[in-house]
Amino acid sequence: FVALLMLIYNPHFINNVGFQLSFIVTFGLLTTAQTVFTRLPQVPQWLSSAVFIPVVAQIWVIPIQMFYFNTISLYSVFANIAIVPFLAVISFGGFVSSVFAMIKPIASYVCVAFDWILNPMINALVMISNFFSSLPNSLAITLQPSILQIMIYYLIILLLTLYIKVLNKKILIALG
User: The whole model's pTM is what?
Assistant: First the structure.
């Protein structure tokens, strides 16, 4: 819905790589992540979220990353797992500081305080990113897929997700 509103506002957003990556990952997480979690009920929720959300996100990002950059980041899943705890705090802190920043008398003090608190975490994100990008063979050079190949890839992912959902329902029916 948000993507549609943004495209109504400015149809040229469709050509923006950041727009495409953001919404394909969001779509992928909405359609695929829950299916993966239900197939792995024995894995604790905190662990499955920390590990499988970056994996699902990477599965959905790969074709676009290959199309625009002709690369695949080989360590991105591990980097994403390492930064997840920081992102939660930074996102929440950014939200809270933006709410308090709307109150004019305290806005500058709030911004300074939250900068002091959040900057070390942002620096940690940069350090983690630099660490993984400096590892040997952190990027694999790829060929550029065609639009048809990308569409087939996403169709296969959606069909596999649907198959897993149907298979999971059959197993639950057989057990119960």
Answer: 0.75
